[in-house]
Amino acid sequence: MSITPSPVPGSEKQPPAEPASASPASPSPAKSSYLPLIAVAVVMVLGLGGLFLYTKSLSDRLNQAQLSLQASLSSQSQSLEQITRRLDQTDTRQTDLQGEFSSTKQTLGSTQAEIQKARQMAAQLAKQQQESSQQLSSQLGQLAQEQEATRGNLGSLSTDVTGVKGEVKSTQAELEATRSELKRVIGDLGVQSDLIAHTRTDLEALRARGDRDYTEFDLRKVSKRQKVGTLQLELKKTDEKRQKYTLNLVADDKTVEKKDKNVFEPVQFYQQGYRQATEIVVQQIFKDRIVGYVSAPKIRDPQTTAAKAN
To answer: What is the pTM of this model?
Structure first.
């Protein structure tokens, strides 16, 4: 930047000075008139230079301040981002906490309801226990009374036991008498029969002996044979008035007719492998129905069995 000094006012109207013969030691009037301008110019140059230096220094400071401000703004921006992230995390955590709080509140409500229910159950159990205790006390009192009554009845019970023992002995005597009444008769084959049972008691007495097998039957008049033990029986007819019956029996693949047999008459026949006869005894005769039992020997004849094998 250049500064051109402006002409001094009134210098243009003045005529050029004529050279004068002056002494060399004193300056000329023209040169002395430029000295203030030069001084002013120098001062202006120095001022402008100082102004330039000040402006440059101020610009440098502004640049530094701007850089510092940018750095500060960048740091604050980062801090703001961190704060924003933390706020987001805080919002998320708050949402989670709200959910947990809601769940905890519901659980607490359920727990309180369960506690209330447990209290009610405990109260009910306590009431039941009290009632049970009262009932037990009442039962204990009643048992004590019954025990006293039982002690008073021990004498009569002893008397009753003695009476029962007497009845048992009487029953045993009657059973022995029943056994003694069992008789042997001659069967339809002319062979002395086994003891004849007239009643179920008689039959049980015969079973108790254990020497023969006894199979009861209730035979009806039907179109097919009925299996009774190892036999097959077929009722052909009955005469309820005369107490007679006719039947077919099948043993060892042989069919035998027993006609017009009487009640309690031993109907005898022999089975292969047995020396003793098998007997049919009818105890009751009804219309188209007979009731009785089959008496069969238990012990086989070894000789008969061997002959059959050969």
So the answer is: 0.43
